[in-house]
Specification:
Blueprint lengths: L4 H27 L5 H4 L3 H5 L1 E3 L2 E6 L10 H4 L11 H6 L16 H30 L13 H7 L2 E3 L8 E3 L6 H20 L2 H14 L2
Length: 217
């Protein structure tokens, strides 16, 4: 390391030149029928050198590996994690992924109940404070009747209003309700049709239908 940057670079270049020449002679010996020294020969010198990733053939030895600009070349960036395929991502999606098993551990439900009680207590306390403030100002208003029905709504809906005993609230039936007499008449008509279908002939039934048509029934 004390030789200086330029001297170290020159020596490293000379070593690589000799290694290339050595490789050419090994290839030529094999070509002439001799042993393959590239495969069976000693590689101590080669193992001491270090190649830059992506630049095969040139090696750095000893202090040359710590030269400015060379050290950074050997620092490999970590490879990015491999991206998962859609099928691999779908393997982790289950009921727990959508939160359906959040209450199975018995921890969340008591916390929710405690929070619900606290919110209800705060709402009641707020209502009491507002009511006391209105009473203090003499502005107590009659509580709104949630069961009351406006006449306009009953007319628009077309329902039937039925009144109970005096003092009871009024309720609206939003569908037509048949009377007892209408129910009895419908039962009688149904019974007649069953008897006609059971005992009357097809001709009689056709005549009956024709008579109903003429009478507008």
């Amino acid at each position: 390391a004390g030789l200086g940057e330029f001297r170290i670079r020159d020596l490293n270049d000379e070593i690589n030149k000799l290694l290339r020449e050595k490789g050419h002679w090994e290839y030529r010996i094999k070509e002439l029928g001799g042993p393959d020294y590239a495969r069976i020969g000693p590689k101590m010198l080669d193992h001491e050198g270090k190649e830059v990733p992506g630049n095969r053939g040139y090696k750095y030895f000893g202090a040359a590996k710590d030269l400015p600009g060379v050290r950074e070349l050997f620092e490999k960036e970590p490879l990015p994690p491999p991206r998962k395929t859609r099928a691999e991502l779908m393997k982790d999606i289950d009921a727990e992924y959508y939160g359906y098993r959040d209450e199975d551990d018995g921890i969340l439900e008591p916390l929710e109940q405690e929070h619900e009680k606290r919110v209800i207590a705060e709402a009641v306390e707020k209502w009491k404070m507002e009511r006391e403030a209105r009473l203090a100002r003499g502005e107590e208003e009659e509580e709104e009747n949630i069961y009351a029905v406006n006449d306009d709504e009953s007319d628009e809906e077309g329902g039937k209003e039925r009144e109970g005993e005096e003092g009871q609230q009024k309720f609206i039936a939003h569908v037509p309700v048949p009377t007892q007499q209408e129910i009895e008449e419908a039962l009688v008509r149904r019974k007649k049709m069953e008897l006609l279908q059971k005992y009357a002939s097809e001709t009689l039934l056709a005549q009956s239908e024709e008579a109903k048509t003429l009478l507008g029934l």
